[in-house]
Amino acid sequence: MIDFTDPVFQNDPHPTYAEMRRTGPVRRVRLPSGTDAWLVTRYEDARRALTDPRLSKSVAALGSSPAAAGQSAAGGPLSRHMLAVDPPDHTRLRRLVSAAFTVRRIEALRPRIEVIATELLDALDGRDRTDLIDAFAFPLPIQVICELLGVPAADQGSFRAWSNVIVAGTMSGDRLGPAIEAMIGYIRSLLAERREHGGDDLLAGLIQVRDSGDGLTEEELTSMVFLLLLAGHETTVNLIGNGAYLLLRDRERWERLRADRALLPSAIEEFLRYEGPVETSTFRVATEDLEIGGEKVAAGDPVVVVLLSANRDDDRFPGAGELRLDRPQNPHLAFGHGIHYCLGAPLARLEAQIAFTALLDRFPALRLAVEPGELTWRPGTLLRGLTELPVRL
Ligand code: HEM
């Protein structure tokens, strides 16, 4: 029996997943929320499951499972986004925003993201110690996604608090409900304000699609904004945070990257593989009886792919347990796979590149301010990230 709430597991789930890959790679478990789900932990099974059309994302197929609803924040008006539906709805919703997230369009944001990174690090001038998550890894992506959508900077603090509760997954219902309500209310007021005053950002564009009756319901619009806001900042924070931690835990890596910046792209892919920001996929549900890795999964059963585990599978990655900044081939699943492959991957990669470059340039002597063993990881099985990363500047 795996105790997902055990702090030992939360701080380092890798040994448990390694054991599962060896002794029961596709296993039915009880999640902290009380729902039974199949966990898929090996790379090949994971990749196959993520492209299997018989594993549905539809909230309807998930039935009334409270855990499923909690994990994907699938409650009511926030549940009609592209990550919670199957084709053809998925195809339609994704197409509406995919043009804004191409590598080329995202690359055009580089100068602005560089300014944001520089400003955040400037603000640390004269300080000896800080929490790198709070001061840098979190505000950078949230500012970027807010600007992209057109969300006022002043509001960032409040929806950070709500989204933290929503993605924690294991939170009890009494905190989850109000956080979802607050988020819905916030997004609705944002849409109302933008409808009145117009604009030329992504939000205004989506409102236009909605209001011209071009196939986007009000619920889908609210859900889309919710998903982009949430996915846009709850994940990249952990890429920057986990990556910085991995570099500082073994400072030779930090020095090596400082000396050879050409390693940065492969280093970022390796952070994604080795300690990716997203621990598990969102829920899928079998629409018919099927087999995964030799196990019989019944129609209606929830299935969760453990991305963190698949990315440490020795059958796919030579020396999977080792962090290699120059790993030549890295087909990791940190951004998922198949039709729900992360829409924001080009943005996340660009943000990480800019963030690490700025950090290496600005604070060459950066080091951990605590022992690695003193660090704690965020609760819940959806995301993998540190609660704090105290550093000496
Ligand atoms: C390092 C940062 C990020 C990681 C590791 C990550 C990871 C993922 C993963 C694993 C999925 C698929 C989940 C599943 O199939 O169950 C996903 C989907 C998605 N991500 Fe990201 N993400 C990151 C950053 C972003 C950013 C910056 C955005 C910006 C808006 C974003 C937007 C999305 C969207 C919209 C989807 C749903 C795509 C679909 O259903 O077609 N992500 N992401």
Automatic annotation (TrEMBL):
Pfam families: p450. It comes from the Bacteria. CDD domains: CYP107-like (cd11029). Transmembrane segments: none annotated. The keyword Iron applies. The keyword Calcium does not apply. InterPro entries: Cyt_P450 (IPR001128), Cyt_P450_B (IPR002397), Cyt_P450_CS (IPR017972), Cyt_P450_sf (IPR036396). Keywords: Heme, Iron, Metal-binding, Monooxygenase, Oxidoreductase. Belongs to the cytochrome P450 family. This is Cytochrome P450. It comes from Actinoplanes flavus. The lineage of its organism: Bacteria, Bacillati, Actinomycetota, Actinomycetes, Micromonosporales.
